[in-house]
Design brief:
3 helices, two-stranded antiparallel ribbon, alpha+beta, four-stranded antiparallel sheet
């Protein structure tokens, strides 16, 4: 996941209904890199999308004579989106958006979600003792 930002939301507070949003969010996941994680412990839903960090991996046919790539097959199935295509926005009702970048975090999105979920679990069970 070189130079891809990971956007995560920790609230499923959406303006459109959740089923409609989830269907739109999960359309063409091979192309967008979007996925949803629902915590079995807290019931919280986390939305994740990979944002293109402008690092381009070269895809195509390698020409051994010229030592160059021919064709560009990676533009469609790159597994991330442009920041302007993000659905995780305040306009769509998200209130807590976390951005992980290679410069600021070495964690994977899933380990970061586990950490957020642990914090939320501790918060909702604070007075259970």
């Amino acid at each position: 996941m070189e130079n891809k930002k990971q956007h995560m939301d920790i609230r499923g507070n959406l303006k459109m209904n959740k089923e409609e949003f989830a269907k739109k969010f999960l359309t063409n996941t091979d192309e967008t890199g979007r996925f949803i994680v629902k915590s079995l412990r807290t019931g919280k839903t986390y939305y994740v999308e990979a944002i293109d960090g402008n690092q381009r991996n070269q895809w195509g046919d390698f020409d051994p004579v010229t030592k160059k790539f021919q064709g560009d097959y990676g533009a469609k199935y790159k597994g991330c989106i442009k920041e302007s295509e993000s659905l995780i926005t305040e306009e769509n009702g998200f209130t807590k958006i976390h951005t992980l970048t290679p410069e600021t975090s070495t964690e994977s999105p899933l380990s970061y979600i586990d950490k957020l979920d642990d914090e939320y679990y501790a918060l909702i069970h604070k007075n259970d003792d």
